């Protein structure tokens, strides 16, 4: 039995069952970590029996659950290793600043570590930590390489916050005391990235609007809050929130521009796929934004490979892939709402399509599409 043969691939409904089964396994494994030792052998035995009985649906269920459990185990093992070696200890840490946010007088820095206690961290498996600084420090910007010592990493007691940190790939949340010294090892020029170079050519208000709409970058400056008030007044404040709407707007904009350019259809699809990749690399991501990126990427690949596009099927694959990559997502409201809303909208369109087809058949007219 070749489960990867096109005729053996699950249907839409099978993929929905597989996704639901994977969600249940993820929720149970995270809520009760000890259950992992029972769930993984059970999934392996279930998969072996399904393979022997040539049951395709059960075999795909076992593969999806096994992939999710392996991903979860790998992530939990890395967090346990970090806690075991660095928690409740006085250490010094060096790393590159990925993000800086100021709120209520506290500067929060997302730091990708390069070394801890002079032990070099491999670039393919870096530790990300949140650094909260209460006292005044020198100007720290994105791209800086800094060194902090001495600091003490304390484990997070709140289970909900601990899950949030794991969802974001953060290994520790550290509050810096006045005794901690901060050294800026390297400070790149202001034009650190291509985004900064473009923003520098715009006036300040246009730069804030450009960064917020296209790259999801917020600011603590008063001008940004005033701009946000204008958006809220006109009822378009949701445009400033990072969501899948930005990907859709980008697609509409690019497709409108490409309609005036005489290029082959496949070239336009490739250009769209490249634009989507560039946007994903340079922008601030959110759950709904990642969902939309994966969905449109799969749709474009279907076009390039001449495969029929089934929106609900692609949405199932997107949901399954995100859960397998980051099982902690199932506990958070943004993940639940974005997929629930998308499923409802797609099902409404699907049911409306069936109603239209039945009407055309009743009038003895040829249907213009075939629902899946």
Q: How would you describe this protein?
A:
The longest helix has 31 residues, at 56-86. The protein has helices spanning 12-31, 36-52, 56-86, 159-167, 194-200, 204-215, 222-233, 244-258, 265-282, 287-304, 311-325, 333-362, and strands spanning 90-103, 106-116, 119-120, 128-133, 145-152, 170-176, 181-186. Helix 1 runs parallel beside helix 3 (56-86), helix 3 packs parallel to helix 11 and helix 8 (244-258) packs parallel to helix 10 (287-304). Mean pLDDT is 78; it is low at 1-9 and 368-372. By secondary structure, the protein is α+β, with helices and mostly antiparallel strands. The chain has 12 helices and 7 strands.
Pick out its properties.
single chain, 372 residues, alpha+beta, 7-stranded mixed β-sheet, 12 helices, 7 strands, globular, disordered N terminus
Alpha-carbon Rg, integer: 24 Å
Straight-line N-to-C gap: 25 Å
User: How much strand?
Assistant: 5-15%
Q: Let me know the largest β-sheet.
A: 7 strands, mixed
Q: Can you tell me the overall shape?
A: globular
Average of per-residue pLDDT values: 78
Task: Find the structural class using helix and strand composition.
Answer: alpha+beta
What sequence of helices (H) and strands (E) makes up the elements?
HHHEEEEEHEEHHHHHHHH
